[in-house]
Design goal:
Blueprint (H helix, E strand, L loop, with lengths): L12 H4 L6 H5 L11 H48 L4 H24 L1
Helix pairs in contact: 3-4
């Protein structure tokens, strides 16, 4: 060991916690934590990480599918309304708008369930 008092390696833990110690030494815990390197621990952590990745993938895929269904439903509704508004005023236009309204009410539960 180096007995030079100017080197910071020979200080006792109480000296390292003093206000004059460098800031990086004061932030360190007095006893460093030791991580067990058993094979079962590494296996368990790896398995947990893999399971979390699979769960994240499932959530993202579900959200993407729901968003796509919502987008398709909105596009279909807009196209149907445009077709109805292109018809001349009269009973055929009212019938078309009524059918679109009925269809929107029937499919809204599907879109809500997909969310």
């Amino acid at each position: 060991m180096n007995n030079n008092p100017s080197s910071g390696t020979d200080k006792e833990p109480a000296d390292l916690a003093s206000p004059t110690a460098p800031r990086s030494w004061r932030a360190m815990p007095l006893k460093p934590l030791k991580v067990s390197e058993s094979r079962w621990g590494v296996f368990a952590v790896s398995l947990a990480v893999c399971c979390m990745l699979v769960a994240f993938y499932a959530v993202v895929r579900s959200a993407t599918t729901a968003g796509e269904l919502r987008r398709q439903d909105t596009a279909a509704r807009v196209a149907a309304l445009m077709r109805c508004h292109a018809l001349p005023n009269g009973p055929s236009r009212k019938q078309c708008l009524g059918a679109v309204n009925d269809q929107m009410l029937a499919t809204s539960a599907v879109v809500v369930a997909a969310q």
